[in-house]
Inverse folding.
DNA sequence: GTCGTTCCTCAGCGAGGGCTCAGACGGCTC
DNA sequence: GAGCCGTCTGAGCCCTCGCTGAGGAACGAC
């Protein structure tokens, strides 16, 4: 909500990437590019985008395979597939492997934008959502957490941070990724805000001596796990 | 001069949406459109409409599923379902999942309007409606509140604001949402009317030293909760 | 006109919460 | 066991957000 929506564009055609990137950036999205399937998977892991725009036909790992792997990784990422004209079988295969929608090349930017909007709408947190992990609950509407029944008040930043963890349980989130998502920094100088907020969260979540849920992964980042 | 009634129209057929929107707008309603179930849920969350007009047959999340999700979110929204001709099982299923009424396509606008009026009458002011939260009561007809038995006089604006809170208990309502509902602003310049009225309400509701019910969520908005 | 009511504006203030910093801690490597 | 690097911790600064009290504008009743 507060954090900007991230879109990953995977296409081996640099021209298409550029057009799409510029257009989407102008619309206020954060755009990451990848020129191949391999790079796409890597960038997806690195940035946890909300939406992936994916060309089917690429040398190496193609769009279908990328879709398959993204889906098997468990995150709920929206996938918009770009297919060549008249390649009906591609579109069918795309939807079957798990793409959420497809767009036939060539397309106008407006068409693309319409699909993007539609897909992102679907992704956004549905009403009444309560995220759970172990004995921890986060009521997104009420913006409050609870653990083992006791209510926990959170400040905005704490809430955003915990939300990120709960959306990606059991995944190690790197410092950079967290900073980028919760603080929207491409920060230059060093700062230890993240450590400080992890501490705040821990102290609130473990106030009654409960087990640690946010674990430090030295040299990497943090994970939410039992 | 109470807040305008909001109606959300969810149908994948743009023509139907347009006809319905124009007609209802002419009748003085505020209309929001959505072209899919997903978008419908999103718009419902964003605008908190009083009534949803919902097509059953839609690709993706269909009308039944939308109904289910709206109902599970706890808000009391009136739902009018649009079903294809002769699809009796749809109508039954619709009512079973929680729709309040249905209308068979094709329909005349007058028929639709009649149902809309009927539903809104039933929903918004079933005579003698009293909203409650904790020890707070709001008599919608009399436009007056009471807490722990003692009667509280409210001005129009105070009433509208409290009504909004009582219709969405335990939900954080953003400033923008509240402004939009109670003041019908798409306000440009800054104003702190909202803060002022929250203050008025608080001072009236807590005149005898009772616990706070309207809580500030810094950086976000306000919630009604114990 | 005067009075009362309600809506809204404004400016000052207080504190919540975001962030920084320095030093302590602790796990790894050698 | 020593040293180092990465993380944790406690203290504290400071800015912004929201709260407050006062008062002016608009409106209607009389």
């Amino acid at each position: 909500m507060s954090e900007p929506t991230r879109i990953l564009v995977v296409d081996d055609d640099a021209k298409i990437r550029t057009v799409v990137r510029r257009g989407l950036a102008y619309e206020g999205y954060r755009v990451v590019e990848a020129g191949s399937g391999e790079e796409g998977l890597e960038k997806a892991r690195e940035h946890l985008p909300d939406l992936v725009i994916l060309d089917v036909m690429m040398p190496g790992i193609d769009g279908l395979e990328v879709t398959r792997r993204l889906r098997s990784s468990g995150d709920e990422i929206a996938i918009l597939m770009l297919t060549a004209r008249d390649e009906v079988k591609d579109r069918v295969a795309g939807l079957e492997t798990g793409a959420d929608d497809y767009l036939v090349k060539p397309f106008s930017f407006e068409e693309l934008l319409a699909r993007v909007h539609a897909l992102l709408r679907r992704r956004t947190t549905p009403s009444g959502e309560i995220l759970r992990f172990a004995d921890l609950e986060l009521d997104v509407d009420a913006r409050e957490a609870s653990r083992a029944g006791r209510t926990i008040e959170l400040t905005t930043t704490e809430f955003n941070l915990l939300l990120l963890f709960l959306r990606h349980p059991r995944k190690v989130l790197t410092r950079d990724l967290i900073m980028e998502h919760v603080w929207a920094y491409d920060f230059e100088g060093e700062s230890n805000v993240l450590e400080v907020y992890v501490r705040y969260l821990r102290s609130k979540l473990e106030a009654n001596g409960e087990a640690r849920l946010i674990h430090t992964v030295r040299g990497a980042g943090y994970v939410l796990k039992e």
